[in-house]
Specification:
Blueprint (H helix, E strand, L loop, with lengths): L2 H6 L9 E6 L4 E4 L5 E8 L1 E6 L5 E4 L3 E5 L4 E4 L9 E3 L31 E3 L15 E8 L3 H9 L4 E4 L5 H12 L6 H21 L8 H5 L5 H10 L7 H8 L3 H12 L3 H19 L5 H7 L5 H12 L3 H8 L6
Parallel strand pairs: 2-8
Antiparallel strand pairs: 1-9, 1-10, 2-7, 3-6, 3-10, 4-5, 4-7, 6-11
């Protein structure tokens, strides 16, 4: 398992907001939920994405922008548009509700009076609502991602608030599939859309991390190193193994000193320090998700035979002992 695959495994579309909107100007859609990650891509036409507290971003055909929450954003036909914003959020689609529950549309000056006009919204039920495509129409696809767990949070920390991927590259083929799928209404459509969104997000992030001159996280470049990349894959594949620097060096075919220096130079910390932080990230998710697991169970799962040693390491890395952390992740009782 490579680092990127591990970090993105908790970022999955599953009946989340999916919108294919054909919009005739003027229009303004306000995405109010502040989802951890929202992917926006334009099939045809163009529009402006206006993130909360940040400058507007022009989004042309075949371009994609990923917005990191919790800030909200608006998608408009032009900066300063006269259109009244339509809120897209709980009244539009939420993962918990399983998708769109309310009929929504946008004003389409070229449409019939009283019609819904302006766009087609898809939710977790795959149901569409309203169509419109007047002159200068823009077709927008939006996917909002819930991000659960501390593992995926490490990926979010490596991303800017607004991430742009221009047209071209591997994501173009995915975009073609997305455009074709939203044009039909067939059984299993939501499952296909979810997987295509996952594919699109992975391609977009990989291309952004690989762009020339980009500020990528240290672990991204380190994955490509023949020695450190192998070491990272071993640590992620076998986090509970009794690793020492010597054992890790033996598995990667270099000396202990070579591995230690090369790992620290590329990743920014020694191998066992990285391993401890990764184990505590895994432990945090186990504590939050498995109520029936004891602290000793979690300790063993991440490579600690002594629960006291595990608790000390967890508090050193996470700032709270395992029991305190678990309690802070439980929802407050309803009053």
């Amino acid at each position: 398992m490579d680092v990127f695959s591990d970090l993105i495994r908790g970022v999955r579309a599953h009946g989340s907001l999916f919108a294919s909107s054909t919009l005739s100007p003027p229009w303004a859609l306000h995405f109010v939920d502040g989802a951890p990650l929202t992917l926006c891509t334009v099939i045809d036409g163009a529009g402006w994405l206006v993130p909360e507290g940040r400058p507007p971003e022009l989004l042309r055909a075949r371009e994609t922008i990923v917005v990191r929450g919790p800030g909200t954003f608006t998608f408009v036909d032009e900066v300063g548009t006269t259109a009244e914003p339509i809120e897209c959020g709980e009244d539009c689609a939420t993962p918990e509700q399983g998708g769109t529950r309310h009929r929504l549309g946008w004003h389409d000056p070229g449409g019939d009076a009283g019609g819904c006009g302006g766009g087609q919204m898809y939710g977790g039920d795959g149901q569409g609502y309203g169509r419109g495509n007047g002159p200068g129409a823009t077709t927008l696809i939006v996917g909002a991602y819930p991000v659960r767990g501390e593992i995926s949070r490490r990926l979010l920390e490596a991303l800017p608030v607004v991430l742009r991927a221009d047209d071209g590259g591997a994501s173009d083929a995915v975009l073609d599939h997305l455009a074709a799928e939203v044009a039909v209404d067939t059984p299993g459509q939501q499952v296909v859309l979810d997987r295509l969104l996952d594919w699109m997000l992975v391609c977009t992030l990989r291309e952004w991390f690989d762009r020339p001159g980009g500020e990528r996280p240290a672990w991204w470049a380190a994955q490509r190193d023949p020695v450190v990349g192998d070491a990272l894959r071993l640590l992620h594949a076998e986090p509970a193994a009794p690793w020492t620097v010597a054992a890790l060096a033996g598995r990667t075919g270099v000396s202990r000193s070579t591995l230690a220096k090369r790992f620290a130079d590329l990743v920014g910390e020694p191998p066992l320090t990285y391993l401890t932080r990764w184990r505590m990230t895994l432990a945090a998710d186990l504590l939050a998700e498995q109520d029936d697991a004891t602290v000793a169970d979690v300790a063993r799962a991440v490579g600690y035979s002594d629960p006291f040693g595990f608790s000390a390491a967890f508090k050193r890395v996470r700032g709270a002992n395992p029991s305190e952390f678990r309690g802070s992740r439980r929802p407050s009782p309803a009053r």
